[in-house]
Amino acid sequence: MATNGIGASVRRVEDFRFLTGRGTYTDDINRPNQLHAQILRSPHAHAKIKKIDAAKALAAPGVVAVFTGADVEKDQLGGLPCGWLVTDRHGKPMVEPPHPMLVKDVVRHVGDQVAVVIAETRAQARDAAELVKVQYEERPAAASLADAVKKGAAQVWEQASGNLCYDWALGDAAVVDAAFKRAAKVAKVDIVNNRLIPNAMEPRAAIGDYDMAKGTYNLYTTSQNPHVIRLLMAAFVLKVPEHKVRVYAPDVGGGFGSKIYHYAEEAIVTWASRKIGRPVKWTAERSESFTSDAHGRDHLTDAEVALDKDGKFLAMRVKTVANMGAYLSTFAPCIPTYLYALLLAGTYTTPAIFCEVKAIFTHTVPVDAYRGAGRPEATYVVERLVDEAAKVTGLDAAEIRRRNFIPRDAFPYQTPVVVQYDSGDYQSTLDIALKTADYAGFEKRRAEAAKRASCAGIGLSTYIEACGIAPSAVVGSVGARAGLYESGLVRVHPTGSVTILTGSHSHGQGHETTFAQLAAERLGVDIANVEVVHGDTDKIPFGMGTYGSRSLAVGGSALVKAMDKIVAKGKKIAAHLLEAAEADIEFKDGVFQVVGTDKKKTLVEISGAAYVPHNYPIAQLEPGLEEQAFYDPTNFTFPGGCHVAEVEIDRDTGVVSVVSFVAVDDVGRVINPMIVEGQVHGGVAQGLGQALLEGCVYDNKSGQLVTGSYMDYTMPRAGDLPPLKVSTHNTLCTHNPLGVKGVGEVGAIGSPAAIMNAVHNAVAPLGIGHVDMPATPERVWRALNSAPKAAE
Amino acid sequence: MPTVSMTVNGKKVTADVEARTLLVHYLRENLGLTGTHVGCDTSQCGACVVHIDGESVKSCTQLAAQCEGANITTIEGLAQGEKLHPMQEAFRENHALQCGFCTPGMVMSAIDLVKKNKSPSEREIREWLEGNLCRCTGYHNIVKAIAATAQSMRA
Q1: Are A493 and A614 in the same domain?
Q2: Model confidence at A3, in pLDDT bands (50, 70, 90)?
Q3: Do A218 and A359 share a domain, yes or no?
Q4: What's the burial of A256, exposed, middle or buried (CB within 10 Å: 0-12/13-18/19+)?
Q5: Model's pTM, two decimal places?
Q6: Residue A312: helix, strand or coil by DSSP?
Q7: Does residue A385 sit in helix, strand or coil?
Q8: Gap between the Cα atoms of A555 and A544, Å rounded
């Protein structure tokens, strides 16, 4: 193994520029002669636009243009497309309303974009936006799921009666019903998966720069997948040829899903730049992020599990209502269906599962994938249910899991919910985690905490997820309107240094390091001689981008395929130069050698020969050493593991402190352990945020976003987290060349359930049966003070 | 428009700025020092922390005009050429950054902490960082990096 290859905690290549303030985020870029855009947003959740009067704004200092929905209509632009068509349980397609980039008739959530004001400076654009007079006729709004499904609720879309987008189901209801009939015991939960606001630290930004001389549109944007944005914007919104559009996503300050989607502002600045003939820049203020970035989660679920007399799961029944918001964001429809119900088997042998999902429109910001996307929701249902099952059977939380785990020798394992797991070892991750967390010694710690007027609790989550998204044919058969392969290109330069061009996009994940390590390992090149390029549609042949923990499993696999092609071509060249048979050449650590001899050529010599083909098999082989590959996975990958949280709750204040957190994850082969641990740390922090701190709140009556800033929406801070004990116990993925599974989301998927199981474990002795996320001090204090045994 | 003069990263600068210009916008837009970031509009996130006369300050809470005569250090002013400041080096060594957006503010804030408290406990570090949000790292490695820097500076 090269010292900087697979398994080495190589320090990150990208850090120098970030640490010295020399990163290039979109808002750091300024184009010559650039203008600034301010988006005028709806202050109402639901209103008819009667009239827009921009005369005063147009007369304001520095203002160059004001565009509205009428201009969009006049230019015959399209709406923002949805990338996934879900078909309901009766074979009917989902209701798919239009999603205009500027709204002309009816606004449907606070923050909906109504007009764009473009001026010489940011301040002028902002001042002038306040002068645009919009006459609204307010209408009643349905801001919560509970309200939107009521009879007589305000309708978001005329064509979606009862605000229903689709009514979807998976599984055999009759088989599940029969299992419940013969059950010895049944456990139930009725839970809320709280709505979250992703809050990548870099607010979204976009610069449109139309080049009149070349007739090309340039878009600089904060995106996780620039090629997807190019495709959607060119083909569906602006209706211009794709080759005339360049999308560049430079350094991007976090995404967590929220920067996957094609947003209106990207199309607005690109279109406006051509109309005006100057570059147009827009950068979100954080308040705008709150009301215009897609939100995450937001489910209401009733679930039950049927158990036999030994605590074995016989069947599971799940009923979920999921919030879509006012419009369908790019991937929204697949999140509460295919990324949710397919994970309901968890790590268990439950033989029959039936899941019903109703997707509902509300007068709120669109909801789409946020770190984990569907899988944290599934994990929360399953793992809360398992703890309830432990309660009704009187079994220990670890023991009931052991009784129901898919055994380590049962892989590949076909679940009753479509997917087939390729590998895993849930017993071991559980055992290691319990030992690390000193599960056996917990009751002693509970007793000690009680002396300090604290309730201590411990909770487990033995979760699974599906990532490495995704086999194109599989997702295509269930409604995806795109393939989900990845592309990679490996260029060996004449002097032997290497440029890797990848369709994956790094916005914190460290691809510039990890992917360079792949080249170090597979080509024997020092990582100092490897450059990783991503984020630019003009440089990278194609790409589907980064989400669903897919970069290494799919993007990395494409690179491995391309490197294999490099080695194969190199062997042909070496065979020629060394006057040996191609079959006799072996390649190792950057050297092509005739087996059993000392005759060899280095990769540098081979690349030299490829680019200066004086002595070269030119009749059979093209010069140059550059290979491209596309990789389409044959299955999802299935990371899993065990998270153990220990909490202490202050009896007087209701404050929940996580005093210990252990994660033992199975993420397949690890390329860079340091980066893997960092990914888990970050995911756990977001999971802790969901469990204890974060909750998006709308005022039910007005549809106003109550948690619209960092003063109101509680982000996890350093003081909210304990030191995290993170490790891996890995089984290899069986179907990709690296054996990797993915690590980006595991932290956020496993941890909320572990923390909430710990909270429930802490308050159960007081007779408290249920606490919803986020378990804020107020919520917990109220529960403590109305608890049946609170006086103790 | 008021004229304002200050020293930024050792260099004297003078400019006419609109009275409402915040220091962070002055640094980013007038001086092109884009390492100082804007992550919110309520002075919560700390991505814009710089040093004003040696103290860590959120540069979104100051008008440029308030900084007349002040000595400002931004993230760009820390390293000596390619040689990183010990805090920057510790962040790299401990993987205390991922997307890098909060990083300049974190580093500037952390340097002020170890100047004021030579051996901060883990709890003290976490409490000091109350005004700096990070969405990527879970703070774990940031806390480690700061503790390591404090220790190496004591040694």
Answers
A1: yes
A2: confident
A3: no
A4: buried
A5: 0.98
A6: coil
A7: helix
A8: 9
Question: For residue A494, how many other CB atoms are within 10 A of its CB?
Answer: 14
Let me know whether A708 and A655 are in one domain: yes
Residues of chain B contacting residue A254, judged by C-beta atoms under 8 Å apart: 98-99, 101, 135-136
The residues near A178 (Cβ < 8 Å, ≥ 6 apart) are none
Supply the pLDDT for residue B65: 96
A349 and A442 share one domain: yes
In this structure, what token pair is assigned to residue A100? 């205009």
**Residue A31 φ/ψ, nearest 5 degrees:** -95, 150
CB contact under 8 A, B100 and A508: yes
Tell me how far apart the alpha carbons of residues A267 and A282 are, in angstroms, rounded to a whole number.
Answer: 11
Q: Can you say whether the dihedral through the CA atoms of A373, A377, A380, A381 is positive or negative?
A: negative
B88 to chain A: closest CA residue = A19
Residue ranges and CATH numbers for the domains of chain B are 3-77 (3.10.20.30), 86-154 (1.10.150.120)
d(CA B31, CA A325): 41
- Same domain assignment for residues A440 and A578: no
Are residues A669 and A700 in contact, defined by beta-carbon separation less than 8 angstroms?
Answer: no
Report the candidate in A783, A785, A787 with the shortest Cα–Cα distance to residue A771: A783
Query: Domain span at residue A696?
Result: 299-469+635-785
The rounded distance, in Å, linking the Cα atoms of A42 and A136 is 9
| CATH number of the domain encompassing residue A277 | 3.90.1170.50
pLDDT over 50 (residue A694): yes
From the centroid of its chain, how far is CA A713?
A: 20
Task: Please tell me whether residues A652 and A754 are part of one structural domain.
Answer: yes
Quote the radius of gyration of chain B (alpha carbons, Å).
Answer: 15
Q: Is A191 part of any domain?
A: no
pLDDT of residue A1: 43
Pairing of β A656-666 and β A724-728: parallel
In a domain, A195, yes or no: no
Distance from CA of A257 to the nearest CA of B (A): 13
Q: Which amino acid is at A86?
A: V
Evaluate if residue A303 carries a pLDDT over 70: yes
Query: Tokens standing for A542?
Result: 């194609």
CB contact under 8 A, A709 and B122: no
Amino acid present at A330: T
A527 and A441 inside one domain: no
Give the model's pLDDT for residue A791.
47
Counting the structural domains of chain A, the total is 3
Q: Which of A631, A653, A678 is the last residue of a domain?
A: A631
Interhelix angle for A603-611 vs A557-578, to 10°? Answer: 80
**A65-83: pLDDT as tens digits:** 999 999 999 999 999 999 9
For residues A561 and A487, the answer to whether their CB atoms sit within 8 Å is no
Q: Is the pLDDT reported for residue A354 higher than 60?
A: yes
CA distance B78 to B83: 9
Q: How far is B36 from chain A (nearest CA, A)?
A: 7
Domain membership of residue A383 (yes or no) is yes
Which residue type is seen at A295? Answer: H
* A26 part of a folded domain: no
The residue from A601, A631, A661 where one domain ends is A631
| Cα pseudo-dihedral A342, A344, A349, A353, rounded to 10 | -90
- What is the predicted ipTM? 0.98
For the record, the structure tokens of B67 come out as: 């900084």
CB contact under 8 A, B91 and A15: yes
The CB-side HSE value for A440 (13 A sphere, CA atoms) comes to 4
* Residue A508, domain CATH: 3.30.365.10
Residues A385 and A269 in one domain: no
Mutation pick from A11, A20, A692 vs chain B, by most beta carbons of B within 10 Å, is: A20
Per-residue confidence band for A790, with pLDDT thresholds at 50, 70 and 90: low
Contact A121, A36 (CB under 8 A): yes
Of B68, B64, B71, B73, give the one whose Cα is nearest residue B22: B64
**A530-533/A498-502 β-pairing:** parallel
Q: Are A263 and A204 in contact (CB under 8 A)?
A: yes
